[in-house]
UniProtKB/TrEMBL annotation:
Cellular compartment(s): Membrane
GO CC terms of this entry: plasma membrane
Alphabetic keyword roster: Kinase, Membrane, Phosphoprotein, Transferase, Transmembrane, Transmembrane helix, Two-component regulatory system
Name of the protein in question: histidine kinase
Record-linked InterPro entries: HAMP_dom, HATPase_C_sf, HATPase_dom, His_kinase_dom, HisK_dim/P_dom, HisK_dim/P_sf, Sig_transdc_His_kin-like_C, TCS_sensor_his_kinase
């Protein structure tokens, strides 16, 4: 089995790509120039052969001197040009410089051309001409072409080699320059990953390349979101520990009081037991809210069309006997359909009514309204309480956040109710917002999506 290829760096990939590109370009240039030069020389040889053939037709060459005269008149090099004459009686006369003999038995032709290679003599352009009783076999030497090609190819190879050497040095520098921001970004990410419990710093964000700049920006956004979650979790653990520590300390303090003074002062036992019961109930509510919040974080909800007006009428009718404030519902008599989960919407409305009840005077009304549009249904709970300062409205849906801690300590609650409501609203694909009520108080608005019209 073939071993998997080791991952390559930027520099390796760029060097390999550049080398392949340069070699390909060099090969294309060599082939293009060689083919162009060869074709040009072939056309030249064909023109020379045509002129020589015209001279041969007018001049009957019978000896070497006549051939030299015809050859020089055609402007050809007599050392690279010769003819063979096939006579009518089958004999062959050759006119070669230096009275050399020619053997064409081992020659081979280049397909689709007039080129022929003669052993020990080289490459020639051949042309056949018949005049009278004679057949002239004309051979024009291509030695100049081959010499030019050898020189040209050698020059191109040297040029490509030098270009490749200089290009690799340039590519190495370029690759290091390109990979440097990526390496720095990776090292910073490794350092950040090595300390997951610490708030992660921002990663370096180079100005270029643009892709690395965008990647670093995305990483920093991801780190910022992670830091926010980490900070919220730390704050959540700290607040939960604080909220649980208080009832536990009260319970243990009253138990110690019973142990120390219960025998001699039995009257402290009922009072201490009352405190223990009250604090244990408070701790139970806190744990239940934490469980609700945990389940809400992991819940998967199947939203169905439901009549929000009917649900609101049922909740208001059930809740009115439990509170002193007068409750009223402003909703159409016809069904108001929205997408949601019935149990969750029931819990949302109940939690908002609990919140309005806690922070409203006993004689001030609480109003539940339903406002509809073509795409949405908005459920409002308006109270006449002290209201929420504008600077606190952004944070009231966070876990354990309570407005005016000194006053909130006098009101029962764990600071988790609105956080649970916010999470339940998100699970129902809705939005929740809080605004100022007139003349005072707050309005909590939950906006849900209307079901698609069939």
């Amino acid at each position: 089995m073939k071993a998997p290829q080791a991952p390559r760096s930027y520099a390796d990939i760029i060097r390999h790509s550049f080398t392949s590109l340069l070699l390909t370009i060099g090969l294309v240039i060599v082939l293009t120039v060689s083919i162009t030069l060869t074709v040009d020389q072939l056309f030249r040889a064909q023109e020379q052969a045509a002129r020589l053939s015209a001279n041969l037709q007018t001049t009957q060459v019978s000896n070497f001197a006549d051939w030299l005269t015809v050859n020089r008149g055609s402007g050809l090099n007599s050392h690279n040009t010769f003819i063979l004459i096939k006579n009518a009686d089958g004999s062959t006369t050759s006119f070669l410089p230096g009275a050399r003999k020619i053997d064409t038995s081992g020659a081979w032709s280049v397909p689709f051309t007039h080129l022929i290679y003669i052993k020990n003599m080289g490459l020639y352009f051949s042309e056949t001409l018949k005049t009278g009783q004679r057949t002239y076999l004309l051979y024009i030497g291509m030695h100049v072409l081959l010499g030019n090609l050898h020189v040209l190819i050698a020059v191109l190879i040297i040029a490509i080699g030098l270009s490749l050497l200089i290009g690799l040095l340039f590519v190495r520098r370029l690759a290091n320059r390109i990979s440097k921001p990526t390496i720095e970004l990776a090292q910073a990410a490794q350092q950040a990953a090595a300390t997951p419990a610490v708030t992660q710093p921002k990663l370096p964000q180079p100005a270029e390349p643009v892709e690395i700049h965008q990647l670093a920006e995305d990483f920093n956004q991801l780190l910022a979101a992670q830091n926010n979650r980490l900070q919220r979790e730390r704050q959540f653990i700290s607040d939960a520990s604080h909220e649980l520590r208080t009832p536990i300390a009260t319970i243990r303090g009253n138990l110690k009081l019973i142990e120390r003074r219960g025998d001699q002062h039995p009257e402290v036992i009922p009072e201490s037991l009352g405190f223990i019961d009250q604090e244990s109930l408070r701790m139970q509510h806190l744990i239940e809210n934490l469980l609700h919040l945990s389940r809400a974080d992991r819940a998967d909800v199947d939203l169905q069309p439901l009549d929000v007006a009917k649900l609101a009428r049922g909740v208001v009718a059930h809740y009115q006997p439990l509170v002193s404030q007068p409750l009223s519902l402003e909703a159409p008599e016809t069904p108001v359909m929205a997408l949601g989960d019935s149990d969750m919407l029931h819990q949302i409305l109940t939690a908002l009514l609990d919140n309005a009840h806690k922070y409203s005077p006993a004689d001030q009304p609480i109003v539940v309204r339903l406002i509809t549009t073509a795409q949405t249904v908005t459920l409002q709970v308006a109270d006449q309480g002290a209201g929420i300062p504008a600077e606190d409205r952004t944070y009231i849906f966070e876990r354990f956040y309570r407005v005016d801690a000194s006053r909130s300590n006098q009101i029962e609650g764990s600071g988790l109710g609105l956080a649970i409501v916010s999470q339940l609203v998100k699970l129902n694909h809705g939005q929740i917002a809080v605004t100022e009520n007139q003349p005072r108080g707050s309005v909590f608005a939950v906006t849900l999506q209307a079901p698609p019209k069939s």
